[in-house]
Write a structure and sequence with these properties.
The protein is mainly beta. Helix content is 10%, strand content 62%. The protein has a single domain, classed as Porin (Beta Barrel), CATH 2.40.160.20.
């Protein structure tokens, strides 16, 4: 009985030591772009925008070697969202913040690790009040939607990898709290991401 207890204790210690050496978390910093598509309402509102560039900070916790939970925070510098409401043109310069979470499924092929992910997201559209914004009543707006993506991580060392990913952000077209700018449509924002992750 003592031998069995000793063997069980040694197994527990070995598993704990192995877990302590595993990399179960990582943090990544990436450059990102938001590319919003043209959208037209069923009435008179048409919406287009310029690309927005910024950064994305992500944290992953590995549940198993191939499954993880991820939390993201992103922010862009600025872009211009244009509204055409016949016969008027309005522009809103905006910064966009992203807060999202996802379930990540990875597939391991030596140093090359493809993955897919999906989860809920919120986008916060922050109008910039300067001469580029032509409608003074534009207000901050938060929209709720979904995020999905697919990409790969290439391991360059046990602690670092390079990540490339295409993400999509599905959300309602913003109107900045102004009913006359409402397209009442949803759109899919393309979001390419390239960055570096550190495992710890």
């Amino acid at each position: 009985m003592k031998k069995i207890a000793l063997i069980a204790l040694l197994l527990v210690v070995c598993v704990a030591a192995g877990r302590a050496q595993e990399s179960r978390q990582d943090i990544s910093l990436s450059g990102t772009a938001l590319i919003e598509p043209f959208k037209a309402s069923s009435t008179t509102v048409q919406v287009n925008s310029t690309p927005a560039y910024g950064g994305l900070l992500s944290y992953r916790f590995m549940l198993t070697p191939s499954n993880a939970l991820e939390a993201n925070y992103g922010i862009t510098y600025q872009n211009s969202i244009g509204f055409y409401v016949n016969p008027n043109h309005y522009k809103v310069l905006t910064r966009t913040q992203e807060i999202s979470a996802a379930f990540v499924r990875s597939f391991v092929f030596k140093n090359f690790n493809p993955f897919v992910e999906a989860g809920p997201s919120a986008l916060i559209f922050l109008p910039i009040r300067n001469s580029g914004t032509t409608i003074v009543d534009a207000k901050q707006q938060t929209t709720v939607g979904a995020m999905y993506g697919a990409g790969f991580a290439y391991e360059i060392s046990p602690s670092f990898d390079i990540r490339m990913e295409y993400r999509g952000l599905v959300t309602k077209v913003p109107n900045f709290g102004l009913s006359q700018l409402s397209a009442n449509r949803w759109y899919n924002i393309s979001n390419p991401v390239v960055g570096v992750a550190y495992h710890f």
